Amino acid sequence: MRKLLSSGLTAALLLPTLLGVLPTAAQAQQRGLPLVRDAETEDLLRDYAAPIFKVAGIGNSPAEIVLVNDKSFNAFVPDSKRMFINIGVILEAETPGEVIGVIAHETGHIAGRHLVRLRQAAANAQIMSVIGMVLGAGAAVAGASAGSSQATTGGAAAALGAGGLGQRSLLSYQRGEEASADRAALRYLEATGQSAKGMLTVFERFAEQQVFASRFADPYAVSHPMANERYRSLAVDAQASRYFDTPAPAALAARHAMVRAKLFAFVNHPNEVARRYPKSDSSMPAQYARAVAAMKSRSRKAIAQIDDLIRQQPNNPHFQELKGQALMEAGRPREAVPAFRKAVALHPQEGQFLIWLGYALVASNDNSALAEAEGALKGGLQRDPNSGIGYSQLAIAHARQGETAEADLATARGLMIQGDFQGAKRYAQRAQQNLKRGTPAWLQADDILSYRPPENLQRRR
């Protein structure tokens, strides 16, 4: 798992949804969303989402699911193309159904075109008033979820002070959209033969957290209906479904447990991992978590623990990826190459594996491997074009082969991913001066030079 950015997530969790300020991954990074990449987790989420997207009518152009490195239970959609899910959703979800319920709800927003209508509803409000209202509402919701009466009352006060009845009207509009997305989620789950029990579990958990905080919250000054209201409005229909007691397929539940253990080990101290997954627990998720913890702590036993996982599941590409990553972090890139080659062989369509392979080949400092590295990196970037690491390593591979213009272009494309548009333009201009006019590479550089970021990003620079 790779962490792309470490700065904190804004407290106003609802701001991106309302104002639509996150249309690209680069902008998400620039605004401080701590994004993470993990092929195994992304594969699982895509499999969760695929049937939901299909029945919702967006299967031909499905939303990209983006992981946010935040332990809080939250998800949001900034537009019709992307769905952001905190890793906290997976960490807290004991069953696949809880995550699927979240995805179904967010899909309801996309399919219902709520984001478009919400922006239209906000269009007549003064922008600073809207921002103030959403910041306050976000603080209120965050406080209620955490059980903090002080945070809840403070957030509600900010929301009320920002624009009075105008804000209340807009929040009421958004509450209606949330309820609509909940009902849509029920329809999607029914149409795909899945239980809504996990979705109810989520609302039940939130309701328990809000028992105290809701005494201080103004239900008309928050954008989401209170959790107990959402539970009551859905429970009867959800429990009446013939699929309500249908569990998730065993294979899917097993994958969920593995990903949950892996994420827990990546984001918690090894001591905490040892408490959650003690040596007495011989399950595969527990072994996985302990192997990740050993890698993080640079334990000499890490490779042996990962090799033991591979012996038990020799065709699991994610174990091979973990071994390669462990060797890379131990400063042994040449030894990592076979592990990444095996991961690619087992899952050839996974762009992140190809990028890891190219990275290891570049880091091996073997000039005879640079052509292979370049091929792997280009193949990986075709499948995963948002990898900053992929572009930086491709730039190194080009530079070592004396391909200066191509190296500059790769650097420019990587800087675009990071949201450094000015730096990208400098390198694109340099590249274009040494590229033949009209070639694909020259045109790529020209696209970067012609790019104009949205006004809200220009103001931030």
TrEMBL record:
One term of GO molecular function: metallopeptidase activity
Enzyme class: hydrolase
TPR repeat feature ranges: 317-350
Gene3D superfamilies linked to this entry: Metalloproteases ('zincins'), catalytic domain, Tetratricopeptide repeat domain
Obligatory cofactor(s): Zn(2+)
UniProt entry keywords in alphabetical sequence: Hydrolase, Metal-binding, Metalloprotease, Protease, Signal, TPR repeat, Zinc
Signal peptide: 1-28
Residue span(s) of domain Peptidase M48: 51-234
EC number: 3.4.24.-
Top-rank taxon, per record: Bacteria
PANTHER family assigned: METALLOENDOPEPTIDASE OMA1, METALLOENDOPEPTIDASE OMA1, MITOCHONDRIAL
Name of this chain's protein: M48 family metalloprotease
